[in-house]
Amino acid sequence: GTEPAGAMWLPVEVRERVEAVHSSSALPERLRLYDDWADSYEQNVAALEYRAPHLAAASLAFAFPTPPAEARVLDVACGTGLVARELHRRGFRCLHGVDGSAGMLELAQRTGLYRQLWQCVLGQEALPVPAEHYDAVTLVGALGEGQVPSTAVPELLRVTKPGGFLCLTTRSNPSNLRYKAELEAALERLEKQGAWQKVLAQEVGNWERATSDKESTQGTGYISGVIYIYQKCPVPQLKE
């Protein structure tokens, strides 16, 4: 007989959590969902086979011209620290994190990977850090419908040093396509204005398991996603 589609292999709890945080509920409610989710988040994400943190960290490390131990990185929407763990594995040692959820930040704190952590709801508040402060800024997984609005992207640029890198990801599943188009329009506008240069935009097939068949890419049971890397202008010129 035919195998059931991929989504059905996901534990019900995982499916419901993911659908809840991605549906556009009001912000306080969504932050509460993340607070409640914090303790089981990493097991749930493992069940999803969520590859974004790994792929984003690998791409960022690849973009860096020199070994990154001293590079200052701001991990926005850091959650429990999945991205920090991947960056740390690739030699990044100076990591700061920001998240809207206190429950998530508490777990990020316990990893011991961050030098500083702040609670901040991006899209509603400015980042609590000075301009042109970071060698790299990452925003992995939170650029999506009902999460961080695409209007927050200039705020990420503000805190990045000239020549610094920004690593962003979004999902390409059907319910996020409108948001993705909006995000890409915002990214292109900034590029036309000369704010940054595109280094990479890579579509990835098996981003994570789909939570429903209608979200799945051509019946694979997975959804796809994209990694973008931009470099803030002015880009330093290489010495002759």
Summarize the helices and strands and which ones pair or pack.
Elements: H1 12-22, H2 27-48, H3 52-63, E1 72-76, H4 82-89, E2 94-99, H5 102-110, E3 116-119, E4 134-143, H6 153-158, E5 160-171, H7 177-192, E6 196-209, E7 222-232
Parallel strand pairs: 1-2, 1-4, 2-3, 4-5
Antiparallel strand pairs: 5-7, 6-7
Helix pairs in contact: 1-2, 2-5, 3-4
InterPro entries: Methyltransf_11 (IPR013216), SAM-dependent_MTases_sf (IPR029063)
Protein name: MET27 protein
Pfam families: Methyltransf_11
Q: Any idea what the radius of gyration is?
A: 17 Å
What's the SSE pattern? HHHEHEHEEHEHEE
Number of strands: 7
Distance between the termini: 65 Å
CATH C-level category: Alpha Beta
Query: Per the principal axes of the C-alpha atoms, what is the gross shape?
Result: globular
Task: Write up what this structure looks like.
The protein has helices at 12-22, 27-48, 52-63, 82-89, 102-110, 153-158, 177-192, and strands spanning 72-76, 94-99, 116-119, 134-143, 160-171, 196-209, 222-232. By secondary structure, the protein is α/β, with parallel strands linked by helices. The protein has a single domain (12-232), classed as Vaccinia Virus protein VP39 (Rossmann fold, 3-Layer(aba) Sandwich). Strands 3-2-1-4-5-7-6 form a seven-stranded mixed beta sheet, sandwiched between helices. The protein is globular. 43% of the residues are buried. The model has no long low-confidence stretch (mean pLDDT 91).
